[in-house]
């Protein structure tokens, strides 16, 4: 457990295991704290690095922090990997983190061995998904007017997971504390720098969708699978909080390592 300064911000990160790097990137409003069990399982396959993205949980939050971008987070990830002498890496990203992983593969293909995108849905690929996201952003602005920024995390989880009171206290605490960071990410939109470059990603890619996720969220991820050349697409049970160390993801990581001669 440590902090590293990259791109003008201090990022909290943790490492487990050894060998080829496996980078875990959490979703919007979330934290690497939810990846602990997954990181332990993944560490049997390589050197796992999970971190809190800028503005989230144990990492530094710039002041002011009104909006950010997928590209900014991808540049942070690249800088962190290089600072830790941890390239190349297999990247696993959940939701917004999956979009960050794809942007990393677009901007710095030389440091990415493969990308697993767990229900990522970059804007501009699905009309249904884009309309849902735009409506969500509008509801959040209304929430801020009525209840304050601190309610943003709750509003998003009710929309995406259909739950709040039922969630563990740690989930509610983290998403409440990360409301400003979540808002900055949503205001900046879940948009890649160039969607046309998705088809140029040559490394193996896995797209995972969940049965119980809102249909527009699944549609965005399904459109992503269609935009990636040769991507493997699997549907799993459960909701949007897909396990980063589920059987399908572990098999993908093992296949990438074998193909790259890194087992």
Task: Please characterize this protein's 3D structure.
It is globular and about 55 Å long. The protein is 41% helix and 18% strand. Strands 1-2-4-3-5-6-7-8 form an eight-stranded mixed sheet, sandwiched between helices. The protein has a single domain, classed as Alpha/Beta hydrolase fold, catalytic domain (Rossmann fold, 3-Layer(aba) Sandwich), CATH 3.40.50. It starts with a strand and ends with a helix. The protein is an alpha/beta fold and 263 residues long. It contains nine helices and eight strands.
Descriptive tags:
263 residues, 9 helices, 41% helix, 18% strand, alpha/beta, Rossmann fold
Helix content, binned percent: 40-55%
- The level-1 CATH class: Alpha Beta
Provide the succession of SSEs.
EEEHEHEHEHHHHEHEH
Shape: globular
The CATH topology, please? Rossmann fold
| Mean pLDDT value | 96
Which structural class best describes the helix and strand composition? Answer: alpha/beta
Strand content: 15-25%
